[in-house]
Amino acid sequence: MSQVQIRINGRGNAWPVFLGQEHPFYNRQKYEDLANASCSIFKTDNNEKNKIQWELLIDAGHGTVQYLLQNSNRIPEAVFITHPHIDHFLGIDWIIQSYSKISQKPYPVYATILTWKKILKAFPQLELLVDFHELKPCKSTIVEHIPGVQITAYPVYHGQSAEGAAMFLFEVEGKKVLFSGDLLCPLLKEDDFNQLKGVDLLVTDANNRFPYPECNHWSVISEKNGVKTDYLKKFINSHSLGLLLTPHSKAYAPISYSNYFDFFLENNFTLHHFIFDCLSFIEKTEPKQVVFMHYSGNEDAKYYDESILNPSELELWIKNVIRNHSIETVVTVPEIGHCFDI
């Protein structure tokens, strides 16, 4: 019998510890604790648990390659990039160059077309070394050469510079795993939410506990003391739909990509129609298990005078939130290298 698992390669945000400071959540003396959020889906043989049959890498930012070198020390079969911020794709040059020099073949990369075009601006040398697979909004794509695996990209908003940003739903041998990537809000229709309902595992951005939309990350909850915060209300009331759609409407976006967003325009959506916190998303999609990563807490400290928590404190706080909302799901704030069965 074989086994499919999710492994945490890194759990941090872009700058887990600011130079010259300490952080309660991250240990600055442990390189692995400073790696940006990254995961692997991998399959092993139960007879040889350390032998990986295949591995799919989701995001490859700071510290990802170092983790791979010190652990499995093998090149993943493909890499999937959620959005074009360098803290999530810095390592792909190292991975692709390794593959190219060893195999003399182009390396499989999966992303939306807008994300890939922006990555190529940073690493133009990779264009001829990559077998690029375009992920179109809400269209399932079979992962080549990996039996029983397909991926669907669902658009999200993560600021004006995150062109083509998406959350990724992997369907693996009858199980569903959703990686939120970094986001302020998902750009989803009701049918999309229905497709995401009841996923086996949600790995989500937990950058801050309370809303501060200007950081372009959603918060764990949208309220403080039972009231929607002024920061969130002001953001929703002072911006139009165009803000959320602009990173997905570049002039070079093909029709096959941009057509998805016509729905929001045709139905007169406003920001009030979208979800800006993880708790509301969990209530709507009912995942069986939730893994919280990419924690910072800096906005909580600066704008709410709330403490930045350590890992056990954050997990306990989120569990209490989930319990108070009568949500039935398993909550984990993982360690590096933590593996989840699916």
Q: How would you describe the overall organization of this protein?
A:
By secondary structure, the chain is of the alpha/beta class. The chain has one domain (2-341): Ribonuclease Z/Hydroxyacylglutathione hydrolase-like (Metallo-beta-lactamase, Chain A), CATH 3.60.15. It contains 12 helices and 17 strands. It has helices spanning 64-70, 86-89, 92-103, 113-122, 190-196, 230-238, 241-245, 255-258, 262-266, 278-285, 298-304, 311-324, and strands at residues 2-10, 38-45, 48-58, 78-80, 107-111, 130-134, 141-142, 149-157, 166-172, 175-179, 185-186, 201-205, 223-224, 227-228, 289-293, 330-332, 339-341. It is globular.
CATH topology group = Metallo-beta-lactamase, Chain A
| Helical residues, percent | 25-40%
Largest sheet: 8 strands, mixed
- The shape is globular
